[in-house]
Design a protein that fits this description.
heterotrimer, A alpha/beta (about 350), B alpha+beta (about 350), C alpha+beta (about 80), A: six-stranded mixed beta sheet, five-stranded parallel beta sheet, 11 strands, globular, C: about 80 residues, five-stranded antiparallel beta sheet, 1 helix, about 40% strand, elongated, iron (chain A), Hyd_form_HypD (chain A), 4 iron, 4 sulfur cluster binding (chain A), iron ion binding (chain A)
């Protein structure tokens, strides 16, 4: 696959690993922000290639992991309603709510379907005018433009049987929340490349400046990640702290303007709860007032939902980089992908599941 | 061998299956006589007895059964009928048996198009002929509309074991070569891309095929086959993990050189799948002494569905619980684990 | 987060900007993808696709330049 295979070349990866080893004079803790990067790191074994003193901290950039339990419960409540076709990305189907997950609800007869895009859910609504189609829109700034477009098109088409349960989160406020907490261990960031393809990276300039931390916008293939690490460590060694762009083939500083414009048109920036991290100001996106008819939360009264968090799960510490999955007492014993205590074990890119699936045999 | 009667006209008053087609009366007889018996036609079926009476020329028999439920019923590279015959034939072949006879039980949903049923039973006949087996007995039932996905098929099969040795996971030895006959993941991806709502277009066809001939060729070439297993649900990884556990050994396979077609790889990238865990229907893994690996591969490559036969790894040592290690392209080894369920398309 | 895959635009449907789609080829698998956010995209361009939408054009020159830089790592290593 062009633009993929070149960035998986083992020889180039090896060269970068050697360059990183030469460059690193002391231990450095670097957080890859995005769950897609975590997945790639563990799958290809990049963490094992690195010199021991380079420690990777897996960041909160996995929507399955950070979507608050109450939204899973809302999704379950809506999906259980008569006449609803509930559409979701495959990622969310195994995430446990307080009492069950969407796959379990489907087994009881709910019409729950996996779609590739919110636009496919919209198509489904047009094809089934007698049914109510609801799309579960989770994810970061990469995914928000897809649900924004679906909302916009639904409004243009005056579709009355389509709505979305929106739980979008924004990356920069979460990074800032991490940086402003007293006990964080992060010394450098690999920024989330695809989020930045939409948003650009001007939002990160003040963060790097204020918290004196290097931020390298990075892609997802092994060579991208290693080059991102190289650039980040180089800054750390040279005591610099600026925003750099490793992912120049995709990301520009300004980002995708038409997408940003539609985001502003469809969503308000709001305070948002993150699973494991708590409430973060200005970290979420909610449908604007004029999109209320297409807002599933308003269409179905799902506010008074009783949500019960399991107490044994320490995913909050994992998401903040304070606890390695393997050091959690529940890991692999009472918490497995078959019986997850928390979302970081459910999501295929959750740090716990990635460790469970790809853990080294030593 | 009897030619399938492909030009049988639609003889019934209905174009769809109705409950009466399962009711034991004239309509059921018509369905059997006009659609099903002509398709499967052979001397044993023609006995029209409650059981097929067959002569088995051996003292060791292999006997297996499997049920087939699939959406969509027709897919690139096959249909549920071909799948139902090849699946059971392959289960026999993997035991080292020469497949001889299979049964066919149809569970048909009311409203199912008779022309589709006809297509499917004719496809079963064609697959049976190709695999050298006869469909000698069967059954059909009709369930109410909404109580089935159009059609379910169960097949059982018997075959004879003509070799002295047994083909069992416990025969796997340290030092054995691990070989696959064909490229990985095509069936699962072909089906996934054709599911409702996916809307992808590709030339990916299911690898669904009978494996009786290439397996027989291995025996004819006197290859010392230690174990065979077809890769079905769960793909290569799940199959190897199961076998490693049974024989108590460690398998090491190399990521580079695993046969996966470019378009299958692309589809996996799009959906967030790992090709090592995707279903196949015409792929098997073979364990032979390393000294015979070259001969085994050369023998397999003479068959149309096994031209890509290649060694993917080695049985490296004993290991009490059994484990499978993947050497990644990056030069790292990691353990392969069973997935907790089916892979779901993801975007995150 | 954010599985996004590169593909090449085969053809573009003529439509108003926010409904515009293109047939995108992903090395042997193709699909209609929304081009609402890439008004400047044209046939043969490579784009990055996420959840049914093209989100960015791939800058082929930048891609070439980065690969070139990797090649030069060798030269740095080889230098005395």
């Amino acid at each position: 696959m062009k633009f993929v295979d070149e960035y998986r070349d083992p020889k180039t990866a090896r060269k970068l690993v050697d360059a990183i080893a030469k460059l690193s004079s002391k231990p450095w803790n670097i957080m890859e922000v995005c769950g897609g990067q975590t997945h790639s790191i563990i799958k290809h074994g990049i963490d094992q290639l690195l010199p021991e003193q380079i420690r990777l901290i897996h960041g909160p950039g996995c929507p399955v992991c950070v979507t608050p339990l109450k939204y899973i419960d809302k999704a379950l409540a809506i999906a259980a309603q008569h006449n609803v076709i509930f559409c979701s990305f495959g990622d969310m189907l195994r995430v446990p709510g307080s009492r069950q997950d969407l796959l379990g609800l489907k087994a009881q007869g709910a019409d729950i379907r996996i779609v590739y895009s919110p636009l496919d859910a919209l198509k489904l609504a047009r094809r089934h005018p007698g049914r109510e189609v609801v799309f579960f829109g989770v994810g970061f700034e990469t995914t928000a433009p897809t649900t924004a477009l679906a909302a916009y098109q639904a409004r243009q088409l005056k579709l009355t049987n389509f709505s979305q349960l929106i739980c979008h989160v924004r990356v920069p406020p979460a990074m800032e929340a991490l940086l402003s907490s007293a006990d964080h261990a992060v010394q450098g960031f690999l920024g989330a490349g695809h989020v930045c393809s939409i948003m650009g990276y001007h939002e990160y300039l003040p963060l790097a400046e204020q918290y004196k931390i290097p931020i390298v916008i990075t892609g997802f293939e092994p060579v991208d990640i290693l080059q991102g690490l190289y650039l980040c460590i180089k800054q750390l060694e040279e005591n610099r702290h600026v925003v750099e762009n490793q992912y120049q083939r995709i990301v520009t500083q300004a980002g995708n303007q038409p997408a940003q414009q539609l985001l502003r048109q469809v969503f308000d920036v709001v305070e948002q709860d993150w699973r494991g991290l708590g409430s973060i100001a200005a970290s979420g996106l909610a449908l604007k007032e004029e999109y209320s008819p297409w807002n599933a939360e308003q269409r179905y009264a799902v506010d008074a939902i009783d949500t019960v968090e399991p107490d044994a799960c320490r995913s909050g510490e994992v998401l903040q980089g304070l606890l390695k999955p393997v050091n959690c007492p529940e890991f692999g014993t009472s918490c497995t992908p078959e019986h997850p205590l928390g979302a970081t074990m459910v999501s295929s890119e959750g740090a716990c599941a990635a460790y469970y699936r790809y853990r080294n045999h030593d | 061998m009897t030619e399938p009667k492909l030009n049988c006209p639609l003889p019934l008053n209905y174009e769809q299956i109705v409950m009466a087609h399962g009711g034991g009366g004239r309509m059921m007889q018509q369905l059997l006589d006009k659609i099903i018996r002509p398709a499967f036609d052979n001397d044993i079926l023609a006995q029209q007895h409650d059981s097929a009476i067959i002569n088995i020329p051996a003292n060791r028999l292999a006997f297996t059964t499997d049920s087939y439920v699939i959406k969509p019923l027709f897919f690139n590279g096959g249909d549920i009928g071909k799948l139902a015959v090849c699946g059971t034939v392959n289960d026999l072949a993997m035991s080292g048996a020469k497949p001889l006879y299979i049964s066919c039980s149809l569970i048909i949903e009311e409203g199912f198009a008779i022309k589709d049923l006809q297509r499917i039973v004719q496809s079963m006949r064609a697959s049976a002929d190709e695999a050298g087996v006869k469909i000698v007995t069967g059954d059909s039932k009709v369930v109410e509309h909404g109580k089935g996905d159009g059609l379910y098929i169960n097949t059982a099969g018997v075959g004879v074991i003509e070799t002295e040795s047994s083909i069992l996971p416990n025969n796997i030895r340290t030092g054995d070569a691990i070989i696959v006959n064909s490229d990985l993941g095509r069936h699962g991806i072909a089906i996934m891309l054709q599911r409702e709502g996916m809307d992808f277009a590709s030339a990916i066809d299911s690898d669904c095929a009978s494996l009786a001939a290439p397996v027989q060729a291995l025996f004819d070439a006197n290859i010392d086959v230690h174990c065979l297993r077809d890769l079905t649900r769960g793909g290569l990884s799940s199959c190897l993990i199961e076998l490693a556990a049974v024989c108590g050994r460690q398998f090491e396979i190399r990521e580079q050189g695993l046969p996966v077609r470019q378009d299958v790889r692309s589809a996996c990238e799009l959906l967030g799948f790992d090709p090592l865990y995707i279903a196949n229907e015409g792929c098997f893994v073979l364990f032979v002494p390393q000294s015979q690996a070259g001969a085994a591969i050369a023998t397999l490559q003479k068959h149309s569905n096994s031209q890509q036969a290649v060694q993917i790894g080695t049985v490296s040592e004993e290991h009490a619980d059994g484990r499978v290690i993947l050497q990644t392209a990056m030069g790292i080894s990691r353990i392969l684990e069973l997935l907790s369920g089916e892979q779901l398309p993801r975007i995150c | 987060m954010c599985l996004a895959v590169p593909g090449q635009i085969i053809r573009i449907s003529d439509d108003e900007p926010l409904l515009r789609t293109g047939l995108i080829d992903f090395s042997g698998v193709s699909r209609e993808i929304s081009l609402a956010y890439l008004p400047e995209a044209k046939a043969d361009d490579y784009v990055i696709v996420h959840a049914g939408l093209a989100i960015a054009l791939i800058d082929e020159e930048e891609a070439q330049a980065s690969l070139q830089a990797f090649q030069e790592l060798d030269d740095i290593e080889a230098a005395p």
